[in-house]
């Protein structure tokens, strides 16, 4: 979250104060248990305003441009580190990239590895957009409802610290528009901006764990407390199956995994979630399910999860002879 006090560049007032809070939005701590250590290299500020002016403290666009109290690249990178640590993913901020750092080569990985020998995964990224715009609906400036438009776009990659090979990476973009009667519209716009930043960072955490688990088997698991619907190793009650009493969160689908016998380990996209019987909410799409139990054959399946829908999966495990 940001608390902002600011005016357009050129006005002699306090700059926008940037203050990210990883606990905002009722985000739960310790959602992951992992032995991996992440080194987050200071992100490159590739916003258009920075490329044109060379100033990393501008925020906004057009006539709605403000100066902040810190460099945006440091603020965004530190937010990434703080959020990962809050989630249970041990991370360190690397303030100074190597002199030979480049997104096109990986020779710099060896340099960083010598400086940070305990790091398993280096995270590098570019800030493509981190801006807000604040305006009003009235014909006279400063009248009517306040409207804030915010957008955050990061390009982030996870690099194997031992090999220098990329593990996974993508670009994630969030934008929003908020209308309010708040007396301090800049604070509304700034708070919304870092909520969007949080959504982007949480997206990287959620989407990277499966890729990380493939490269580092057994190194990461999702804690049951991170998923309010998760039930692991206990008999599922009728109320838990009742979607009115136990609704599926917006943007999620529900998977129910049961086995005979119960107590089998459940892996989703190579990440351990718990033991059967199990109920949990997942992002819609195709997921790789693996069910393992000592003295029984391992079962594997591809499961299609639909938003707002409960998907059951049941298996009679075959005993090894």
UniProtKB/TrEMBL annotation:
It comes from the Bacteria. Residues 253-311 form the PEGA domain. This is PEGA domain-containing protein.
């Amino acid at each position: 979250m940001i608390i902002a006090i600011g005016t357009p560049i050129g006005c002699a007032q306090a700059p926008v104060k940037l203050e990210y809070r990883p606990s905002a939005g009722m985000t739960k701590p310790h959602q992951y248990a992992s032995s991996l250590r992440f080194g987050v290299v200071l992100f490159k500020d590739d916003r258009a305003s920075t490329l044109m002016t060379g100033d990393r403290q501008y925020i906004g666009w057009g006539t709605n441009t403000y100066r902040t109290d810190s460099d945006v690249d440091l603020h965004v990178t530190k937010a990434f580190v703080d959020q990962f640590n809050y989630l249970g993913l041990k991370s360190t901020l690397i303030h100074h990239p190597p002199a030979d750092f480049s997104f096109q080569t990986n020779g710099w990985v060896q340099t960083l590895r010598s400086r940070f020998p305990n790091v398993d995964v280096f995270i590098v990224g570019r800030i493509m957009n981190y801006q807000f715009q604040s305006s009003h609906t009235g014909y006279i400036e400063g009248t009517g409802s306040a409207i804030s438009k915010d957008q955050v776009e990061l390009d982030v990659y996870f690099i194997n610290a031992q090999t220098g090979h990329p593990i996974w990476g993508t670009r994630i973009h969030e934008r929003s528009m908020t209308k309010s009667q708040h007396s301090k519209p800049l604070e509304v716009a700034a708070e919304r901006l870092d909520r969007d930043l949080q959504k982007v960072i949480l997206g990287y955490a959620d989407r990277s764990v499966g890729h990380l688990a493939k490269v580092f088997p057994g190194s990461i698991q999702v804690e049951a407390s991170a998923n309010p619907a998760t039930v692991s190793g206990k008999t599922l009650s009728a109320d838990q199956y009742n979607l009115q009493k136990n609704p599926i969160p917006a943007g999620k689908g529900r998977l129910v995994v049961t086995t005979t016998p119960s107590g089998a380990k459940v892996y989703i996209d190579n990440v351990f979630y718990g033991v059967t019987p199990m109920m949990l909410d997942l992002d819609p799409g195709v997921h790789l399910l693996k069910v393992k139990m000592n003295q029984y054959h391992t079962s594997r399946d591809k499961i299609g999860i639909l938003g707002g829908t409960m998907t059951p999966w049941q298996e009679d495990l075959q005993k090894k002879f």
